[in-house]
Amino acid sequence: MVFNDKAEICKMEEFVNYILQFGNLNSQQIELILSKAETMELRKDEYFSEAGKIPRYVGFLLKGVTRFCYYNNKSEEITHSFVEENNFVSDQQRFEAQMVASEYIQAITDCELLVFSKKNWDEIGNTIVGWKDMENLIVKNCLMKALERRSPLVSEDATTRYLSFISQFPGLVNRVPLSQVASYLGITQQSLSRIRKNIVK
Question: What residue ranges of the chain have pLDDT lower than 70?
Fold first, then answer.
């Protein structure tokens, strides 16, 4: 894959810098990883992965915001996490096992991703010594980040939860529908509107 556009090269650098946090790679190994990647564009509301289907890709979000969501036993849609730019987005466990997913990964805004098919992801792991260790650290980091963001939501009151959300996802509240923010926080949209009004006062 050749990137000529300056903006594209800059985005690739973000991806390379991200993975280099988790281990060392030489220029040939980085070139191999980039050669296995494809770019994908998702329009707002399109799905990167769907419940009932086997996840096809591991993605790195170059631009945009996605969310993980599912339907509970009352058929209510629940948003349980958001992923913004310069982070991996995947249903990793089911992707690796090639099992049917139980949740959705949906684009909240128009998104641009760097994606790896199962075949290409496996080829990277089979070619680069130490890649599996790096992959494990990346997955662990993603899980830790999600847990750190979720855990305060259990014990805090609704206003504190919203303030925590703003500090963890600065700027995201203006890009995400309030109904999804409310679902993530475990409150009604009316409660969220009240909280926002009180904070503005």
Answer: 1-10, 151-155, 200-201
Q: Minimal CA–CA distance to 9: which of 59, 62, 66?
A: 62
102 exposed, middle or buried (CB, 10 Å; 0-12, 13-18, 19+)? exposed
Q: What is the DSSP letter of 99?
A: -
For the domain spanning 6-149, the CATH number is 2.60.120.10
Q: Distance (Å, rounded) from C-alpha 191 to C-alpha 181? A: 11
pLDDT at residue number 115: 95
Give the pLDDT confidence score for residue 142 in this predicted structure.
86
Contact between 142 and 89 (Cβ < 8 Å): no
Is the distance from CB of 109 to CB of 45 less than 8 angstroms? Answer: no
Q: Where are the domains of the chain?
A: 6-149, 151-201
Residue with tokens 């170059």: 62
Q: What is the pLDDT of residue 1?
A: 44
Element (H, E) at 93: helix 92-97
